[in-house]
Write a structure and sequence with these properties.
The protein is of the alpha+beta class. The protein has helices at 10-14, 28-31, 52-65, 115-124, 139-145, 152-155, 183-192, 224-236, 278-284, 286-289, 306-309, 331-341, 392-405, 431-444, and strands spanning 19-21, 45-48, 68-72, 87-91, 98-101, 106-110, 127-128, 162-168, 174-178, 198-205, 207-208, 212-220, 243-251, 266-274, 295-296, 299-301, 319-326, 351-356, 378-385. It binds flavin-adenine dinucleotide.
């Protein structure tokens, strides 16, 4: 292991198995890398912890020196983290390990793991986690913020599938918290994000997935009005919880890393995953296949295949995005989507999607955490590539324009995981939930040691 050249942090380095990296070290740029490469993180130092003891040492050291600690895994939501100059960026990449108890349908996963590794292991034994659209998103940030994925309408949010969390709190103690131990703190972390400590491992439920019928229908971009309205009609007529669908427009830039069949091309696409057999699944989506797509990739798949369905980018990209939760959706909502994101609109964004919510996502499960439900009909996420600094304002403006067009249907609350800019955390919760989250923050982190992406503060 390379030892940091920095003398400022030599004492911290001597207490760790992992590595302290500062701006004079060769590993600096790689250590502060984020998924959105436009984000330029410049913390006081990066601490690449090797184990839970390193996490505790780093927290004690920071508390003594008046520094803050910003936990981070993959940096997929690094954009909103403000004030890093007085903080140690604690990178958890090395906290690896996926253990699966097949009989109990449980996983125990190191906080540095990404969803792809978990989904692959679970899939081998016919189980599925409540992971999202991307294999490279981290288990920790996704789970602590909520977590909506392809099985969400059937099984709810990943935050509520957590059965235990191992966390080092501001006093430097490693605790295993669950439904019977430190229940208030366990409630807070399941939706309250990285405000309460550094998570070192997570335990959660896996779900049987003996049969999954999933795929995508590709239509020409120009057919967006017909396809989006047909999709909305199908969804609003009431689909079973077993099926989760997404309707979107793609305008893929001509970038070399994209597969040839989509590179530089535009489409209207409906994607879906159905927990059931081919005959029933095909019947459910028949109103859409009946429209005659150019390409239909539906078929029976292993659970791990769901990580490829949305074709999310796996490598870091420069991007700008905007998001909204939409409720009381009608055909007018679809028209607003089309006018701002469809053919003839100002949008050239790579992807603008409506994910269908409802089902278990809208029902508070027993023993839920702070992010108990995600209300609304659709989650809109709009994202575009920013290929040069001059493009940033334009791309951001296009994404914000779509969110603004949907304002009449704004569900009220926002979804923290989809917010990639600094925002007031009050927007993510109802008043009572926020008040309790804030009180628990004061109890567990009285000096505001932890610097989360979405800070819960006064
Ligand atoms: C391509 C892409 C696809 C996505 N798809 C989905 C999706 O399908 N569904 C969905 O719900 N979301 C999705 N997201 C959003 C994603 O859930 C958030 O970006 C999430 O915060 C990422 O977590 P991370 O650990 O990878 O990121 P990081 O940036 O590493 O972490 C985000 C925050 O989580 C907290 N955190 C992370 N690790 C720890 C830890 N060990 N201890 C304490 N706090 C910690 C910190 O506050 C940190 O700032 C997607 C994002 C991208 C970029």
């Amino acid at each position: 292991m390379l030892i940091s050249q920095s003398t400022r942090f030599s004492e911290l380095q001597s207490r760790l198995h992992g590595q302290v990296v500062t701006d004079i070290d060769e590993a600096w740029d790689a250590s502060r890398q984020t998924f959105n490469v436009l984000v330029d993180q410049r913390p006081a130092a990066v601490v690449r912890v090797a184990n839970a003891d390193d996490v505790a040492e780093t927290i004690r050291y920071a508390a003594q020196r008046g520094l803050r600690v910003a936990p981070q895994g993959t940096g997929h939501n690094a954009g909103p983290v403000d004030g890093l100059e007085d903080a140690l960026l604690l990178r958890t990449d090395a906290l690896q390990g996926v253990e699966i108890d097949v009989a109990a349908r449980r996983a125990r996963v190191g906080a540095g793991e990404r969803w792809g590794a978990v989904a692959d292991r679970a899939s081998e034994v016919g189980l599925a986690p409540l992971s999202g659209s991307s294999r490279t998103v981290g288990v920790a940030g996704y789970s602590l913020g909520g977590g909506i994925g392809w099985l969400g309408r059937k099984h709810g949010l990943q935050a509520n599938a957590l059965t235990a969390v191992e966390i080092v709190t501001a006093d430097g103690e490693l605790r295993r918290i669950d439904h019977d131990n430190e229940t208030d703190l366990f409630w807070a972390v399941r939706g309250g994000g990285g405000n309460y400590g550094v998570v070192t491992a997570l335990e959660f439920e896996l779900f049987p997935a003996p049969e999954i019928y999933a795929g995508a229908l590709f239509f020409p971009f120009e057919r967006a009005p017909e396809v989006m309205h047909a999709w909305h009609e199908l969804v609003s007529a009431g689909l079973p919880d077993e099926i989760t669908t997404v309707a979107r427009v793609y305008q893929f830039p001509p970038l070399p890393f994209l597969p040839e069949f989509i590179r530089g091309k535009s489409f209207t696409v409906v994607q879906a995953a159905y927990l059931g057999n081919e005959r029933d699944g095909a019947e459910l989506i028949a109103p859409l296949t009946g429209l005659g797509p150019d390409m239909n990739t539906f078929g029976m798949v292993e659970p791990a295949a769901l990580g490829h369905l949305a074709m999310d980018p796996e490598d870091p990209i420069p991007a700008a995005s905007s998001a909204r939760l939409v409720s009381n959706a009608s055909h007018a909502t679809i028209d607003a989507f089309l006018d701002s994101a469809g053919p003839g609109s100002p949008s050239q964004l790579a992807s603008v999607e409506f994910r269908a919510l409802g089902g278990a996502l809208a029902r508070r499960p027993e023993g839920a955490g702070a992010r108990a439900t995600l209300q609304g009909d659709y989650a809109m996420f709009a994202v575009g590539g920013v290929m040069s600094p001059e493009m940033k304002a334009e791309v951001q403006g296009q994404a914000d324009g779509i969110a603004a067009a949907l304002a009449p249907w704004d569900a009220g609350a926002r979804y923290a995981n989809f917010e990639e800019r600094s925002s007031d955390a009050r927007l993510f919760y109802d008043e009572d939930t926020f008040r309790l989250l804030r009180a628990l923050r004061t109890e567990w982190d009285p000096s505001g040691l932890f610097l989360a992406n979405h800070e819960i503060k006064e």
